[in-house]
Amino acid sequence: MNVRRRHISALALTAVAALGFGTLTACSSDSAAAGDTGKFDVVASFYPMAFLAERIGGEHVHVTSLTQPGQEPHDLEISARQTAQLEESDAALYLKGLQPSVDEAIGQSPIATKIDAAELTALEEHGTEAGHGEEHGDEHGDEHAHEDEHGHDHDHEGGDPHIWLDPVKYAEVAEGVGKAFQKADPDHAADYRKNTATLVKDLEALDERFRTGLANRKTDVFVTTHAAFGYLAERYGLTEEAISGLDPDTEPSGARVKELQKIAKEDGVTTVFYETLVSDRTAKTLAGDTGLRTDVLDPVEGITDHSRGEDYFQVMEANLTALRTALGAR
C-alpha cells in the first residue's frame, strides 16, 4: 500500500541501477520490489521475522527478507540494494542483537515503522550451558559459559536473541507485531487482528505438543553445537549443553570438550545435535570421541532444501521428534 513514499539515497539509487531491484527472498512469490507492490511493504531481517509478517499480514503485505534462504543470519552484511529496500518500505521487522549490520541499517533508516521483536518479550542471558550449574556445581559452572578458547565474549548485548525457539515467547512477539501492523496499516487492522489470533492459537498448540511430548523422558540433558536453544530448554525443563556459545562459528576449547564428554557420560546423553546452516564437523568429532550419535536440531533461522519441513511449524515438529528420541521420551 506504500503508506509513504520517500526519495532513495544517491548511493542506494546507484546500486539499484547497477544491480536491478528484486525481492531477496523466497518468502514471497511476488517479485516486485519493496516500495512498488501496492501492498503494505515489510522488510524482515531473517526467516523467523518474515514468517511472522507473512502469517499476520496475509494477503495485505509484501514481505522481503534481508537474509537469503540458506545464509547464516549472524553473518549478514547489508548491501546498498538492501538499504534502498529499507528506505522504500512501509515497515521493518527485525530482532535487535542478532544481526549487527541489520541493527545499524534500520537504525539509520528513515522508515517510520520499526518493529524490534526483542522489545516485545523479555530477553534472558544464556551461554554455552543453560541451568546446569546447580546440578554439577563449579565443575560444570560458568568457566566456559561465554568464552571461546581465545577468551572472546560472544554474548549478544541485551540477552540471548533466540526467542522464536520458545513457542510461548514467539507468540508474545506475534501479538506485538500484530498490534504494530494494525497501527501502521489501520485499513486492514481487523484482518491483522484475526490472523494474529490464529497464529497465537497455533503456537499455543505447538507449546502443548512439546509439553506432552517431552513429559516422560530418561534425561533432561541435550548437547548442541550452538547455544540457540536456551529458551526452549528453560520452557520445558531441559538442560542445553552447547559445544560453543551463542555465536555458531565459535570453536570450543579443549577444556570444554572434555567437560562435555564427562557430562554426556554422567547424564546419559545419547546424541550430539548440529544444525543445517553450520558445519557438522565439530559435532561429529565430539560424537565420535564419546561414542554418541549425531542428529539435526534446527534453530529455524532459515528454510532450505535440507530443512526437515517447509515452514516454522513443520521444522519445530521435527525438532520435537529429534528431542524425544535423544532424551528417551515415551
How would you describe this structure to a colleague?
The protein is of the alpha/beta class and 330 residues long. A 4-stranded parallel sheet has the order 2-1-3-4, sandwiched between helices. Helix 2 (47-57) links the parallel strand 1 (40-44) and strand 2 (61-65). It has helices at 10-19, 47-57, 80-87, 100-108, 133-136, 167-184, 189-213, 230-235, 254-267, 281-290, 312-327, and strands at residues 40-44, 61-65, 91-94, 113-116, 221-224, 239-242, 271-274, 293-296. Helix 2 (47-57) packs across helix 6 (167-184). 40% of the residues lie in helices and 10% in strands. It has 11 helices and 8 strands. The longest helix is centred in the middle third of the chain and has 25 residues, at 189-213.
Number of helices: 11
Write the element-wise H/E pattern from the N-terminal end onward: HEHEHEHEHHHEHEHEHEH
Shape: globular
Going across the major beta sheet, what is the strand order?
Answer: 2-1-3-4
Helix percent reads 25-40%
Major sheet description:
4 strands, parallel
Low-confidence stretches: 2-33, 130-156
Task: Tell me the span between the first and last alpha carbons.
Answer: 50 Å
Instruction: Indicate the multimeric state.
Output: single chain
Strand content: 5-15%
Classification by helices and strands: alpha/beta
